[in-house]
Description:
Four copies of one chain form a homotetramer.
Chain A: E1 2-5, H1 13-21, E2 28-31, H2 57-64, E3 69-75, H3 83-90, H4 92-97, H5 103-108, E4 111-118, H6 122-125, H7 127-139, E5 143-151, H8 162-176
Protein name (chains A, B, C, D): Multimeric flavodoxin WrbA
Domain NADPH-dependent FMN reductase-like (chains A, B, C, D): 2-120
Organism (chains A, B, C, D): Sutcliffiella tianshenii
Amino acid sequence: xxxxxxxxxxxxxxxxxxxxxxxxxxxxxxxxxxxxxxxxxxxxxxxxxxxxxxxxxxxxxxxxxxxxxxxxxxxxxxxxxxxxxxxxxxxxxxxxxxxxxxxxxxxxxxxxxxxxxxxxxxxxxxxxxxxxxxxxxxxxxxxxxxxxxxxxxxxxxxxxxxxxxxxxxxxxxxxxxx
Amino acid sequence: xxxxxxxxxxxxxxxxxxxxxxxxxxxxxxxxxxxxxxxxxxxxxxxxxxxxxxxxxxxxxxxxxxxxxxxxxxxxxxxxxxxxxxxxxxxxxxxxxxxxxxxxxxxxxxxxxxxxxxxxxxxxxxxxxxxxxxxxxxxxxxxxxxxxxxxxxxxxxxxxxxxxxxxxxxxxxxxxxx
Amino acid sequence: xxxxxxxxxxxxxxxxxxxxxxxxxxxxxxxxxxxxxxxxxxxxxxxxxxxxxxxxxxxxxxxxxxxxxxxxxxxxxxxxxxxxxxxxxxxxxxxxxxxxxxxxxxxxxxxxxxxxxxxxxxxxxxxxxxxxxxxxxxxxxxxxxxxxxxxxxxxxxxxxxxxxxxxxxxxxxxxxxx
Amino acid sequence: xxxxxxxxxxxxxxxxxxxxxxxxxxxxxxxxxxxxxxxxxxxxxxxxxxxxxxxxxxxxxxxxxxxxxxxxxxxxxxxxxxxxxxxxxxxxxxxxxxxxxxxxxxxxxxxxxxxxxxxxxxxxxxxxxxxxxxxxxxxxxxxxxxxxxxxxxxxxxxxxxxxxxxxxxxxxxxxxxx
Lengths: 178, 178, 178, 178
C-alpha cells in the first residue's frame, strides 16, 4: 500500500488522519512536499510528446507502479485538492503518453482511497472533490474504493473529529483483518 | 471586465472560447502562463501569517480588485482546473489574511463567470468543477453568474463545438446589449 | 425516438423546450400525466417478487422497449425530477426483476437524453439531478448522451431562454442531419 | 425532533439506521407509508392557487411546524429519494403559497438531517441526492446539519455497515450530551 501526501505542513490534519488509518500497517509513504514536481507543460498535442522534466515526478511514478493499493491524502484547499497533489495528478498525462511504461494498465488494476480534510463544512463542500477523484480513477477503469472526509480548522483539530477517526479505524481493522 | 487565463498553450481551446465570448468588448486580460505564481505555503496557522513571496501574485490581485466582473478560464485537466489556475486561487488564502487589502469585501461584490474546455465528456465530467467554483465564489458571498463548458480534443477543435460557441455569443450579445 | 413527459401542466415549459428539440421529427410521445402509474411497492425482497399492479406502467415499458433513443422530459421540482417521472423510473425495479422481458439488455442499448426546466438557477441547481440521471442510465451500462437545462419562472417563459432554445435547435439539426 | 420516514417496508434498512440514531431519545415519528399524500398538482400559476386535496399532507405539515429539528429518512431508489418522500417534499410548494401558515419562516429556523440507505455504492452514488437535499434546505435559508449514508442490499443488512452505525451512534451521543 502506497500513501501519497499532498499537504504542505509536516504532521498536518490530513496527514494525522491518514496515519491513523494505516496505523501498525506496513506501507510506503511519499510526501510530495519533500519533492520537486513541476506543473505539467501541456504538450499533449506536440509531435515529440512531453519533454523529460528532470524532476522527482518519475521516481514517484516508479513507486506508484509497484503498489496495488494507493491512498491519496490531501487537505481541502478552496474545495479542491492541494496544488501539490494536483500538479502530481496532472503529470499523469505525461505517463499516459510515454510508451515505455504500462501506466494505464497498472493504474487500472489498483484500488484507490482518498483522504481529505478541510475546515468549511467539508462533509458537504468536499463532495465535488470526491466526484472529481471518482472521474479520475474511472478514467483508468479503476475504482474509488472508499474515501474519508475529515473536518479540522486548526492544527491537530482532526483528532476531535470522532466520525472521521472512527471511519479511519474501521478501514484500518478491515485492512488488518482484525 | 477581467479575464484570467489558466491555460498553458498560447491560443488554446479554452482561450479561443473565451475570446469568442468577449469579442469586440473592452476587457483586461491576464495570462497566468506569462507570470510566476508560486504554490501556496500553508502558513494560515503561523503567528506572523503568510510571508511575501515576491512573485507576480500580488500584481494580479491588484488588477482583480479593480474589476466588478471576472471570467476565470481554464482547460479541464483531470476533471479539475489547471494547476496554474489552482495555484492562483489557492493564494487567495494569503490575501484573505492580509489586513492591508479589502480582499473579501471586494470579491463579495464581483460577478464571476467560468469557462472550461475539456476533451472527455466535459458537459458531464466537468460538473464537479462547476460545483467547486460555486463553493469558491459563495465563500465570498458572491455569485457564480454563469459558466460555459466546451468540448475539444485537439487544438482549435473548440470552434466546432457549436453549442459552446453559441452560448458564448449569447453572453457576448447580452454584455454588449445588442 | 421516444419522448416521455413527466410534467403536470399541458404545454408547460419543459414540454415546450422538448417540442422545440424534436421539431419536424417523427417521434412517439408519452405524457405520464394522462396515465396511471402507481408508486412502487418495494417487493424486491419478496419471494414471489413484484405483484402486477394493473396500471398503465406496463404499456409504457412495452413502448420503451421499441425505441433506441429516449428523451426524458421533466420540470425541476425541488431540485429533482417530478414525482410522476420518479414514480415511473422507480418502477423499473419491477421490470428488472420480471424475467419475461429483456429489460436490462434493452435499456443497455439505448441512448438517453434529459430535458429539465426549472426556475431557481437551474443551470447550477439542477446539476445534481443530471448526475442522478447519469447514475441511472449507467446502471444499465447505457450512456447519458446529452441534456438540456432550461430556465423558466412562469408559463411560456422558456421561449425566452435563448441558450436552452439554441441548444435544442442544435440537437434537432444534428438528429435531422441538416 | 421529528423523524419522517419515506420507506415502503416496515422496519427496513433506512428505518433501522434512523432508529439507531435516535435510540433512547424522545422524538416524534411519522411514517409516510401509513398516510395518503397525493403527488402535487402543479397549480403554482393558477390564480386561485392550490386546491385543498383532503389528504394527510396537511396534518404532517402541522406536526412539522412544531419541531426545530427534522430528520428525513429515505431509502435510495434509483439514486434519489423514494417517491413517497418526494411526493411529500413536492407538496411544500403548496404550503409556500398558502398564506395561512408561516411555512417558510418556520422551515428557515429548522435544522435538517438526512438518512439515506442504498445498495449500489451509496457512499458515492448518493452524493447527488445529498446535494439535492442541500439545495432544498438552503431554499429556506436553513442548513443541512448532517447526513448519514448507509449501505445495505438485503433486509437487516444495514446492521453490518459499521461505518454508518458508528456515525449514527456519534450523532446520538451528541444529541443526548453523553
